[in-house]
C-alpha cells in the first residue's frame, strides 16, 4: 500500500514536470491550470492501473499448488469506472498441496483455503469438504476425528455441487 502511494505521487509529479517542461519550451503558451490537471489525471490513472493490475500480480506470484477457485468483483460509486468494468477486489485460492484425507474416508478432505483481499491481510483457513455429498464444515475447536476417519461434532453446511471452491478442493484426487 505504501509503495502504491509513492508510485501514485511519482506519477503525478512526473506528469506535472512533463507539462511544465512542454509549457516552458512553448514559452508559456499553455494555460496555467494544465500542470495540476495533468498531475491529477496521472495520479488517477496510476491508481486505476494499480487497482486493475492487483489480481494479476498476486496470481502470478502465488506459489505452486494454489488454484484460484473464486473471485469477487466490486463496483463502487466513488469509483465510477468500475461500473464499466468491475475489478477483482478479493479472491479465494485452494491450496491443493495441503489436501489431507483418511484412507477410510476418501471423499472427505481437509484443504487450506487462502483468502486474499485488495486492502486486507491474507488469511489461511482449513476447511473440511465432503466431496460426495457437497458439504463443507469449518475446522474449529470441538471437531474430533475417529480412528476410522469419521468426523464428530462438525457443523456441516450444504453447498451447491457446482460450487467453484468445492470443485477445486475435490479435483485433487
Q: What would you say this structure looks like, in words?
A:
The chain is an alpha+beta fold. It has 2 domains: about 1-60, no CATH class; about 65-170, Beta Barrel (Lipocalin). The chain has helices at about 1-25, 35-60, 80-85, 165-170; strands at about 65-75, 85-100, 105-115, 120-130, 135-140, 145, 150, 155-160. The strands form 2 sheets. It has a 6-stranded antiparallel sheet, sandwiched between helices. A two-stranded antiparallel ribbon has the order 6-7. A hairpin with a 2-residue loop joins strand 3 and strand 4 (about 120-130). Keywords: Membrane, Transmembrane, Transmembrane helix.
Which structural traits does this protein have?
alpha+beta, membrane, 6-stranded antiparallel sheet, transmembrane, transmembrane helix, 173 residues
Secondary structure category: alpha+beta
Helix content bin: 25-40%
Largest sheet: 6 strands, antiparallel
Radius of gyration: 24 Å
Question: Number of DSSP helices?
Answer: 4
Number of strands: 8
Give average pLDDT, whole number: 92
CATH class of the largest domain: Mainly Beta
- The global form is rod-shaped
Uncertain runs are none
Order of helices and strands: HHEHEEEEEEEH
Strand composition percent: 25-35%
What's the domain count?
2
End-to-end gap = 38 Å
Secondary-structure arrangement, i.e. CATH architecture of the largest domain: Beta Barrel
CATH topology name of the largest domain, in short, is Lipocalin
Record the strand order, biggest sheet: 1-2-3-4-5-8
Task: Please give a quick description of this structure.
The protein has about 170 residues and is of the alpha+beta class. It has helices at about 1-25, 35-60, 80-85, 165-170; strands spanning about 65-75, 85-100, 105-115, 120-130, 135-140, 145, 150, 155-160. The strands form two sheets. It has a six-stranded antiparallel sheet with strand order 1-2-3-4-5-8, sandwiched between helices. Strands 6-7 form a two-stranded antiparallel ribbon.
Amino acid at each position: 500500500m505504501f509503495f502504491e502511494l509513492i508510485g501514485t505521487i511519482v506519477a503525478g509529479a512526473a506528469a506535472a514536470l512533463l507539462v511544465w517542461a512542454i509549457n516552458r519550451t512553448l514559452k508559456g503558451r499553455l494555460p496555467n491550470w494544465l500542470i495540476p490537471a495533468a498531475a491529477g489525471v496521472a495520479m488517477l490513472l496510476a491508481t486505476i492501473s494499480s487497482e486493475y493490475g492487483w489480481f494479476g500480480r498476486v496470481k502470478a506470484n502465488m506459489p505452486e499448488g494454489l488454484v484460484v477457485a473464486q473471485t469477487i468483483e466490486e463496483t463502487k460509486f466513488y469509483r465510477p469506472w468500475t461500473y464499466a468494468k468491475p475489478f477483482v477486489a478479493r479472491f479465494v485460492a485452494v491450496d491443493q498441496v495441503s489436501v489431507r484425507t483418511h484412507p477410510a474416508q476418501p471423499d472427505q478432505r481437509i484443504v487450506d483455503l487462502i483468502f486474499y483481499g485488495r486492502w486486507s491481510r491474507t488469511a489461511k483457513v482449513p476447511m473440511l469438504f465432503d466431496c460426495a455429498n457437497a458439504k463443507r464444515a469449518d475446522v474449529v475447536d470441538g471437531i474430533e476425528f475417529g480412528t476410522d476417519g469419521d468426523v464428530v461434532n462438525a457443523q456441516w453446511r450444504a453447498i451447491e455441487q457446482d460450487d467453484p471452491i468445492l470443485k477445486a478442493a475435490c479435483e485433487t484426487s
